[in-house]
Specification:
Largest interface: A-B, 49 and 49 residues
Mean pLDDT of chain A: 91
Helix content of chain A: 25-40%
Structural class of chain A: alpha+beta
Oligomer: homodimer
Radius of gyration of chain A: 20 Å
Low-confidence stretches of chain A: 1-13
Number of helices of chain A: 8
Shape of chain A: globular
Strand content of chain A: 15-25%
Strand order of the largest sheet of chain A: 1-8-3-6
Order of helices and strands of chain A: HHEEEEEEEEHHHEHHEEH
Chain lengths: ~250, ~250
DNA sequence: CCCCGGCTTTGACTTTAATCAAGGAATGAG
DNA sequence: CTCATTCCTTGATTAAAGTCAAAGCCGGGG
């Protein structure tokens, strides 16, 4: 990105340590210290945040924040998949994003959530009080930079998905979804990856703007054409990611 | 938002002026100094930027940036409407956002544009070289904060639109579009607003994930039901914005 | 082990929007 | 003014996805 400091740890160098250099014990092995927002914080900032943070495990299907609710905490996703969705008054629902570890969960500077965040799989988060984060953002430009970066990434993803929702066929939509999951869950495998779907057919339908039945039919077709292999409904193998990508309409 | 300085002008106060207080002549009446990113810059910063900036008028249908092109400048929209769109290899297109004055146009920290920006109406922009803005972002936290704010706004809008694309009927989509334009072009009018559509039927179709014919049919229906009045294809009057909002599925 | 519940698949039929095909207004050039 | 072009509307037909209904699969509890 630009010239801002990325907050590398100085653990290795033997020198006279200050508070800023000491990483709290619980943070050391934490996923969020890698790619997450905590990677731009120094030791004393981590210590401050850590004192107010609480780790929570969330069962699939449990809401983290509800649409229209007041938000009093933000969090880092440490494990699992969180779905962000919007609901219309008559119950129609659309999933507008999926978040994976170590994403930051929450929309800064907005008291009321315009969407629902719900665990799709077993999920672990590290939650902070609203005020603690906002104070830290205000006097840590690097943190705001990091958050800005995530929001730009989410914006790119949202716009990609708008193309999928508006212009792709049911078949292409399902293939696009499988491709999205494949590249997020099994990022290294360029060829022949395998994973468990984090979403039920109903969730997939809500993500793709389709019905359960249509998702099921298209999955069956892709299976019969050997673009994917499916075991036990949830477990998918993609023998050739390029073929899947082609089925998704990305030439 | 938070406690960051919003960069108010000090023109009025009689005191010993520094360079920072003097607003360049051309910026004084500029829309971007109001809500745009220039509102967080001081006089000397505006002067620096101003020296490298160029105002340009862009005809409808002209590309500002092309999908896949390298980006070497960013700009402020001073007048008009810019459409952001994505195209698939086979020509299917989706408009993924509309930008109005005084929005900032460009995606910081990405060399290559993932979308096309094209003037929808006669548009005026103030363009800056890439490097000038990025340097200024790096040492002006208030500027990055402002840009972050715009990106969060765009993300909210993108997600709202995902619900429209994925879950609304053709009628609701068209009504949603009209509502969006009504609230952006004629923001004060709570009741009985009137405006010119900035987009052709083809563009509206590309924004809504529909065909031209379906857009036209739904416009006709809404006209026959007196939800809207249409003159000369482009000029629309909304007698009751709540009825339009209801037709858009927002109860 | 079997039964029950939820999730998923499959089939028959309906509905919505897309496609194909004319025809009609508005705009601009000559 | 007239013609040509582009944009928009309307109608008839088709295709894609939705709805309704039933049956299969899988996992957990008794």
């Amino acid at each position: 990105m630009n010239g801002l400091r990325i907050g590398e740890t100085m653990d290795e160098k033997p020198h006279f340590a200050t508070d800023d250099d000491v990483i709290p014990q619980v943070c050391r092995a934490c996923e969020a210290r890698h790619g997450g927002i905590c990677s731009v914080l120094n030791g004393s900032q981590l210590a401050v945040l850590n004192k107010q943070s609480s780790k929570r495990t969330i069962d699939p299907g449990t809401e983290v924040v509800g649409q229209g609710e007041n938000v009093n905490s933000y969090s880092n996703i440490l494990r699992g998949v969180v779905k962000l969705s919007k609901m219309m008054a008559d119950g129609r629902q659309q999933i507008v994003g999926l978040q994976f570890a170590p994403d930051f969960l929450g929309r800064p500077f907005s008291r009321e959530s315009s969407l629902t965040a719900e665990a799709a799989t077993a999920t672990e988060i590290c939650a902070f009080p609203r005020a603690a984060i906002e104070r830290m953002i205000a006097d840590t430009p690097g943190l705001e930079h990091k958050l800005y970066g995530q929001s730009l990434k989410e914006l790119d993803e949202a716009r990609d998905w708008m193309l999928t929702l508006g212009r792709k066929t049911a078949r292409e939509k399902v293939a696009s979804f499988l491709h999205l999951i494949a590249t997020h869950i099994d990022p290294e495998a360029d060829d022949g990856c395998t994973f468990d779907l984090p979403l039920s057919r109903a969730d997939i339908a809500d993500f793709l703007g389709l019905t359960i039945e249509t998702v099921s039919r298209q999955m069956t077709k892709l299976r019969k054409e050997k673009v994917i292999l499916v075991e036990n409904n949830r477990h998918v193998t993609v023998p050739d990611i390029d073929r899947l990508n082609e089925a998704a309409g990305n030439d």
